[in-house]
């Protein structure tokens, strides 16, 4: 005989069969029509229309294109469920019948292809599904459900934008915040972990200055290309020699721009790098090392000016509250059985935690799989997971529709009911 919570869960999730058809259609349409960060107008409108139809009090235009749906259902905890909505400037190569062919003008004025290459279309669809199930079975739970559809996660400022636009006043007290992400793991699986689960991330733009001249007279110049090359080589020692072996960090130089022609030595080089860490102490140590190395290399090269440093696209570290995560994990283990496991620490980054941190709310963030289980098993057996399983942001990243949507919808609902279910 099941517990009262199990009985409530069974009744609420009974509506999943009825939601499945519209969810799958909604997902295909959303995947076919992705929108870049801060441009999620059609996505937001579709979300708001659905939430209104489910009976939620809908608030639009928060932080630009953010949408919040609130369903108050008597006394009890307030549970916030979040999904991100934006897509990426990636040209899709999945070959799917509902593949995106969309293009858009980005923030820099460039015309770019657009694709849901990170699974945010899955997140939106699953949260709408959970919102529908909870609304249809409101006699089974008590409290407040807050569904939050966030813009601009991919550029790291969507959560802060919603907060700056009065989110805290709108939602009031929140007892727990929950979010999930589809990952290149077998579909049907869920996993979370207490403590640090996603890294903090910082992007840095560094401009180093040289003295330009003719390629035939390098003695009259300070070559910024050589300077940039020396910086890149020296930066490779930061993680291996300045971060403890028991800690983790990733430092990547992803972009270098310098020069205009083969026989011209330019007067500057611009490097863009990305740093990921799991603690503020390590983050500070590595950022200090970057500045120290760049400044020293400029001095060694006789650079005529000090280098310029610009931090941008900052993401906070995601640290799951142990108590909240234990409660979510227990609910997942009970419902999903052996499909529930501990999620390995991820080097990816998110801005979700900006919201519960500002609201002073404990939170849990988990992952769900999106890869066909047989395909994943074959890749594991061949030792080719890295080669054969597309990862997030890949032009071939394409979560299988089922059981991914069912699992994501169930996970949000089961986690929410761990606080809301009548007992």
From TrEMBL:
Q: Which GO terms describe its molecular function?
A: metal ion binding; N-acetyldiaminopimelate deacetylase activity
What SUPFAM superfamilies is this protein classified in? Answer: Bacterial exopeptidase dimerisation domain (SSF55031), Zn-dependent exopeptidases (SSF53187)
What keywords would UniProt list here?
Answer: Hydrolase, Manganese, Metal-binding
The keyword Disulfide bond is annotated on this UniProt entry: no
Q: How is the cofactor bound?
A: The Mn(2+) ion enhances activity.
Named cofactor requirement(s): Mn(2+)
Q: Which residues bind Mn(2+)?
A: 118, 120, 154, 181
**Protein name per Swiss-Prot or TrEMBL:** Amidohydrolase
Q: Which residues form the Peptidase M20 dimerisation domain?
A: 202-298
Secretion signal span: none
UniProt superkingdom? Bacteria
Instruction: Output the Pfam families linked to this UniProt entry.
Output: M20_dimer, Peptidase_M20
Q: Which InterPro entries match?
A: Amidohydrolase, Bact_exopeptidase_dim_dom, Peptidase_M20, Peptidase_M20_dimer
Single GO biological process annotation from the record: diaminopimelate biosynthetic process
């Amino acid at each position: 005989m099941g517990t009262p919570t199990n009985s409530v869960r069974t009744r609420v999730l009974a509506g999943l069969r009825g939601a499945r058809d519209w969810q799958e259609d909604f997902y295909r349409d959303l995947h076919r029509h992705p929108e870049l960060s801060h441009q999620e107008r059609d996505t937001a409108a579709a979300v708001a229309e659905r939430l209104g139809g489910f009976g939620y009090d809908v608030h639009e235009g928060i932080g630009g294109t953010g949408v919040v749906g609130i369903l108050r259902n008597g006394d009890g905890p307030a549970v916030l469920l979040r999904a991100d909505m934006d897509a990426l400037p990636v040209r899709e190569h999945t070959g799917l019948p509902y593949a995106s062919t969309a293009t858009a003008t980005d923030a820099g004025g460039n015309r770019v292809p657009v694709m849901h290459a990170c699974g945010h279309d899955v997140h939106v669809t699953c949260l709408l599904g959970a919102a529908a199930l909870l609304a249809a079975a409101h006699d089974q739970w008590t409290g407040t459900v807050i569904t939050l559809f966030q813009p601009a996660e991919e550029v790291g400022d969507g959560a802060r934008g919603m907060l700056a636009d009065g989110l805290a006043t709108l939602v009031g007290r929140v007892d727990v915040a929950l979010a999930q992400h589809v990952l290149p793991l077998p579909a049907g699986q869920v996993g979370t972990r207490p403590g640090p689960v996603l890294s903090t991330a910082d992007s840095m733009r560094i401009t180093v200055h040289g003295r330009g001249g003719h390629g035939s007279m390098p003695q009259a110049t300070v070559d910024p290309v050589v300077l940039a090359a020396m910086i890149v080589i020296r930066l490779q020692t930061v993680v291996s020699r300045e971060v403890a072996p028991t800690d983790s960090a990733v430092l990547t130089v992803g972009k270098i721009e310098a020069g205009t022609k083969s026989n011209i030595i330019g007067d500057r080089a611009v490097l863009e790098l990305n740093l990921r860490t799991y603690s503020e102490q390590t983050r500070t140590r590595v950022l200090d090392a970057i500045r120290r190395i760049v400044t020293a290399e400029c001095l060694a090269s006789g650079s005529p000016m000090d280098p310029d440093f610009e931090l941008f696209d900052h993401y906070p570290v995601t640290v799951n509250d142990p108590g909240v995560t234990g409660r979510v994990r227990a609910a997942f283990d009970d419902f999903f059985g052996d499909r529930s496991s501990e999620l390995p620490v991820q080097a990816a980054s998110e801005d979700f935690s900006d919201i519960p941190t500002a609201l002073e709310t404990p939170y849990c963030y988990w992952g769900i799989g999106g890869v066909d289980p047989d395909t994943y098993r074959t890749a594991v057996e061949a030792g080719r997971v890295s080669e054969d399983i597309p990862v997030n942001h890949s032009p071939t990243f394409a979560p299988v529709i089922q059981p991914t949507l069912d699992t994501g919808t169930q996970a949000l609902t089961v986690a929410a009911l761990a606080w809301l279910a009548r007992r």
